[in-house]
Structure formats: C-alpha cells, structure tokens
Amino acid sequence: MDKTAASAEQAVADIRDGASLAVGGFGLCGIPAVLISALHVQGATGLRVVSNNCGTDEHGLGILLGAGRIARVTGSYVGENKEFARQYLSGELEVELVPQGTLAERLRAGGHGIPAFYTPAGVGTPLADGGIPWRHTAGGEIAVASPAKETRLFDGRPFVLEEAITCDYALVRAARGDRHGNLVFDKSARNFNPLAAMAGRVTIAEVEELVEPGVLAPDDIHLPGVFVQRVVELTARQAADKQIEKRTVSV
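and the corresponding structure tokens:
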C-alpha cells in the first residue's frame, strides 16, 4: 500500500480543532518541523499536545504555542520556552508534567493496547497524591489540579497507576522511510519518535529520504509501517534545515 501524501499540507488537512497530537522529537532533535509548519498554516486550534517538550519560542511546537493554537500540553520538560511559562502562569495553557520515563511508557503502552501500568516513579509525591496545578486562573489561583492516582503494594513496595496515552494523530520525523510507512530514525531522533508514532490513531511521518519498499532491510527498521498511515517526502532543503537548541562555540 502506497501511503505517500502529495504534500505536508495535504497530510495534515483533516486535523480538526481540539484534536490530540502525539509529537515526536527530543528538544529540537528529530522534530517534525515541516508538518508542524503545515499545521500552523492549516489553522487548527485548541490542540491537545503530548510531547517530550514544547520546542523553543521560535521553533518546533513553539510556533503553534506562540500562535495560541495549543490548549493543553502533556510533557516532561518545558525549560526552553518563555512563552510556555507565560501562558501557563497566566491561565492560558493547561499543563500536565510527567516524568520522562513515565511519559515514554505511557505512549508505548497506548501503542500496544495496554490501558495502564504501575510504576514506582512519583510515589509519595504530589504526582501520586494530586494537587499539582494543571491550569491557573488569570489571577494566579489554581483552576484545575491534578487528581490523586491509585497506588498499590507489590511485594511490600508501593507503585502508582499510570494510564496509557493515545492520540487522534501523531506527527513524527524519520531519517529514512518507504512508501509502506516503514521508518528508520537517526540517533537521538529515535528517543520519542517511535513512541509517539505508536500512540497515534493516524500517524503522519515526514521522511528525509524516501525509498522503495524492500530497500530497507527488515532488521534495520525501527518502526514497522503498520503504525504509519501517511508519509511525506521532504525536499533536500527541508531535510537539511535542522535547528540547534543551544549554540555553543569555543575559542
């Protein structure tokens, strides 16, 4: 089955207002920048995003955030985006912070049909006990707080129940892919992209190099095409346009 879309714009055209999105990438590494830009042009708003982070003020999901298109974020790290902090503290944005390993497992569980799992991460903290501010009022009061989570003893040790995550769509980026949706990721870009892809009911992948089916050796494939519904081939310029989160130099 040929899953290629004619353009990124076509691939994201049916993402509606209020949709939930699992978005791959780690910092600015491996983010689906072309799909995010296409979604920005498309205009969907009220989006509920699940991602390791929310980009920076000028790149990645920060583009959608700055345009006021994101209503809720579930993530594990938000330290590089001042606009994110402003919207959260002013009550414009709802935020659920999740330990990074727990976030990864919640996405993986969603992709594998596992509804929930127990983990020791967060036991004895507000993450398990509830009360973490998810959304503030404009005056800084707590409008929505996190609920308490179920805990249970296993061999005398407490664990907290975490629910799996599934989303309406997933946006990911791969180094190589074929027309059947089989994907290969490059180094750190593999951190969250496969997990996000598995959690999406409709997964859209932008690929830096598109090859014909059979070119990718089965043992080299990181994510099988069964998890991918649409593939967008990037131009050479788009594939090479990769931003650096923090540029450092030495003399």
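(Above: one complete record from the training split.) Helices lie at 8-11, 33-42, 62-66, 82-89, 100-111, 126-129, 193-199, 236-240.
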